[in-house]
From TrEMBL, chain A:
Residues 6-34 form the 4Fe-4S ferredoxin-type domain. This is Ferredoxin. InterPro entries: 3Fe4S_ferredoxin, 4Fe4S_Fe-S-bd, Fe-S_cluster_ET. Ferredoxins are iron-sulfur proteins that transfer electrons in a wide variety of metabolic reactions. The lineage of its organism: Bacteria, Bacillati, Actinomycetota, Actinomycetes, Streptosporangiales.
UniProtKB/TrEMBL annotation, chain B:
GO terms for molecular function: heme binding; iron ion binding; monooxygenase activity; oxidoreductase activity, acting on paired donors, with incorporation or reduction of molecular oxygen. Residues 1-23 are annotated as: Disordered. The keyword Transcription does not apply. Gene3D superfamilies: Cytochrome P450. InterPro entries: Cyt_P450, Cyt_P450_B, Cyt_P450_sf. This is Cytochrome P450. Pfam families: p450. Keywords: Heme, Iron, Metal-binding, Monooxygenase, Oxidoreductase. The keyword Phosphoprotein does not apply. It comes from Thermocatellispora tengchongensis. SUPFAM superfamilies: Cytochrome P450. Belongs to the cytochrome P450 family.
Amino acid sequence: MTAEKWSLEVDRRRCVGNGMCVAVAPEHFTLTDGRSSPISAQVAPAEEVTEAFELCPMSAITIRDAAGAEIDPTR
Amino acid sequence: MTDTTAQFPFPPTSPEKAHEQMRRIREDRPMTQVQYAFGGKVWAIHRHAAVKQMLEDRRFVRKPFATGAMEVPYPVQFPDFLKTTMQFADPPEHTRLRRLVAKAFTMRRVELLREKTRRFAEDLLDAMERKGPPADLVRDYTLQVPILVLSELLGVPAADRDKFTAWSQVMLATNGLSEQELAEHGAALYTYLVELIAARRAEPADDLLSALATAREKDDSLTDEEILPIAMLLLVAGFDNTANFATQGVLALLRNPDQLRVFLADIDGVAPTLADEVLRHGGFALGNDVEGSAGLVPFVATEDVEIDGQLVRAGECVMADISTANHDENAFADPERFDVTRSPNPHLTLSHGLHHCLGASLARMEMQVIIGSVFRRFPGLALAGEESYATDFLTAGMSSLPVTW
């Protein structure tokens, strides 16, 4: 588990700049031109990233495992 | 203002003339300082890019309205209970409140409610069909679906839905209730919610009131005084507004047969773009007179901010004039056209940024289901009279729409 990395994507076409991700995971997301993007594309699994994923109103955040498969860490 | 024919606000006029007026306003200046009956002056921002810039700038806040330090500048008075909700909070308070409810309204979660919403719609259409035409589409259908969905979401038991629906009429523009009935229903709704929250706290279920009630237990962060206004806000925003936009969508299609044909040819495929186009342009597509009057809930500038060349001074209020911004040719091709397949459609009706509508995905899904289901059932749906409107309420909407099939 510790060696595992998540890769993060934000669909900027869907993003409405609500900023929940930045509010709960400021080390992982940032708003530029009113839209969110991940600060680094590869991160260690973290609870606040899961919360950002879960709270995004547009469900615009995608998390992938090391193999590139989409995952839902809330399940 | 240099163009004296570009006044804002402007009185009701035909959609064609309103388009022309709004174009002149946008060309002339980014914003107009307007004086309202309540709360005084506010800058109404007209250009799409300028509205977005303001909504993305955290130097514009709402706390002074919530504390009562300033009155909200608006043509009508805002009810006090709304001012205690997250809509009038700034970060970090806003984050704390929104975080508690946001999970229930994400696009993924809302999709899980689509089938249930469809069943609510189908049951209501069955009842309409059994009774036979004509029907009042607002009373019998477009108003009923959102209240059933909200009951489901909040966790109102099926056995209580009839009385819950009746009491919730106090939240409606067009309830037709006497002052005594209003007070009675309001008190009954309040008491009912308090009891339901207590019950869910004792025995949580998989619904929003349980989530709110137990959130308080976990970190002692949410009191009943906070939960109740949230529940009321969900009712007032999610009930009346959703019903009104859905009704507007049905009527807009009936008044624009070319677009109705496009929709009927592929209901499920077109429903998503139709819903957003109704949000952007529904009021214009009805063919009735439209006015340039107000916009979304205002903000207060905490310091001097320049937007699109106009200085907004610290302490002054700003407001998104979404009607004018939603027809900005710099953001929309052929903005005066009602185009049910429009994509992309960056309208600002559900706001943008921090206060982007919490229920946006839910509202879209409900509109898609409500409009799609009625035209699938009655492809020959037609008007059986004139629609009527409520005019003396915050969310002034359509109060009846007589239809036949």
